[in-house]
Design a protein that fits this description.
The chain is 81% helix and 0% strand. It contains five helices and no strands. By secondary structure, it is an all-alpha fold.
Length: 139
Amino acid sequence: MTDMTPEAARHALADAARTSDRLRARARWASSKLAVLGLGLGVVTATIGLAESKLLGATVFAAWGVLVAATAWWERRRTAHLAGARERTSRYWALSFGLYAVAIACGVARPDGDAAFWLPAAAVVALPMLVGAVRERRA
């Protein structure tokens, strides 16, 4: 092992800090993905409850599937991943989908188009992913 001068050590630490900052900047895509899909799931939830047209509901649900596929493709093209991101984000996904299931289960007993139920339900369903997006941005 070679001895480093104090100047070389400072330079090495500065390089490491710049590299870390670049990695974190490139790994911000996870928060964007959570935000986009959280909003999308909220729209799907509201549409399922409020849309009178079955065709519109099916179209929005199909668009959700396309959005999920597009973000999965986009994610595979990202080269930077922060350690533990998958474990952190999977909790937000699971919570949002759990709340989605509760909203659908409770909403079937509601009259069609009950905005007083479906709009807050959509916000509650989207909230975990949106909170996750903010937290992941800060990670």
